[in-house]
Design brief:
alpha+beta; single chain; transmembrane helix; six-stranded mixed β-sheet
Length: 304
């Protein structure tokens, strides 16, 4: 019996840290935190047969919990920053769009608000804003590209929509001007991996954006609902990110009210920045009507 519990313990951790190239393996790895917590169960059961082995495995699981959930953050609050950004996956059926824009953009200090899963039936909410601020996605005849709308208090000097063979797949490139400094940006929202086909499409978008990043010049920002976790082998690897800066956060769960429980929630909303841009004041907050949290962060350009 003890061999069965030992095998279960090993199998759970192999699934948690696997980097195998497969749909189900990737989904299992996304639940790494939950699997690590589950590993305590067979470790405790082993107390009946081998106390020394059991305590060793429990200590290992505790170490893995601390390694994964990072109950600390090296980030410090910065008072003076250049650009404040907020991004959120609204969820298409969200009836609170006007209130979200008012609280997170009009009446807030945020310079840029990025909305994902924007519902084109609510386009009228943007009518007055189009004459007061710089908008992307509002004027497009076919609707908001990939469900993405960007509201900015900074001038948007370049706009580009990148589409793949599947017109529903792609990303948006925008350039913002701040005090003669150009911030080149990429915004993306790949499909949620609910099926093998959608999983492949998500990976395609992430791969294409990873290639796009290598072409970006100057200061840049990549932001979006990546629909994957930072430890996935398909995640866009970058030294500076919201997740690394914050330590650990969760931005989505089946029930938004439970997303504060790090074991249940997942960090799938992200930002990446170039080496000459500093990230600070990264945090997440609840948004009415959405199963995602709003991700807020501030950018500071290096002074050369």
């Amino acid at each position: 019996m003890r061999l069965i519990f030992l095998f279960c313990y090993i199998a759970i951790l192999v699934l948690a840290f696997n980097q195998f190239d497969g749909y189900l393996f990737d989904l299992a790895a996304a639940l790494r935190g939950l699997l690590i917590v589950c590993s305590f169960l067979p470790a405790f059961f082993l107390l009946w047969w081998n106390k020394k082995l059991s305590l060793s495995l429990i200590a290992l699981s505790i170490g893995l919990v601390l390694f994964h959930f990072k109950p600390y953050s090296s980030a410090e609050e910065v008072q003076s920053t250049d650009i404040k950004v907020a991004q959120v996956n609204l969820q298409y059926s969200n009836p609170n769009l006007a209130n979200i824009i008012t609280s997170q953009f009009i009446n807030a200090q945020n310079d840029i608000l990025v909305l994902f899963e924007f519902n084109d039936t609510q386009r009228h909410v943007l009518d007055e804003l189009s004459t007061q601020y710089h908008l992307f996605g509002y004027a497009e005849v076919e609707g908001a590209p990939f469900g993405i709308i960007v509201l900015s208090k900074l001038p948007i000097v370049q706009r580009q929509i990148k589409r793949f063979d599947n017109p529903k797949l792609g990303y948006v490139k925008l350039s913002f001007l701040h005090d003669n400094v150009m911030l080149n940006s990429v915004f993306l929202h790949p499909p949620s991996p609910r099926t093998l086909s959608l999983w492949s499409q998500r990976n395609l978008v992430l791969s294409e954006v990873a290639s796009e990043i290598k072409k970006l010049k100057g200061s840049w920002l990549v932001a979006g609902d990546f629909n994957t976790v930072p430890w996935s082998r398909f995640f866009i690897k970058n030294k500076s990110s919201c997740f690394n800066s914050a330590g650990f956060y969760t931005s989505w769960s089946l029930k938004n009210q439970l997303s504060d429980l790090k074991v249940i929630g997942l960090p799938i909303d992200h930002c990446l920045v170039s080496e000459d841009v500093s990230l600070s004041n990264v945090d997440v907050s609840f948004v009415n009507g959405s199963d995602h949290k709003l991700l807020h962060y501030e950018l500071t350009f290096s002074k050369h």
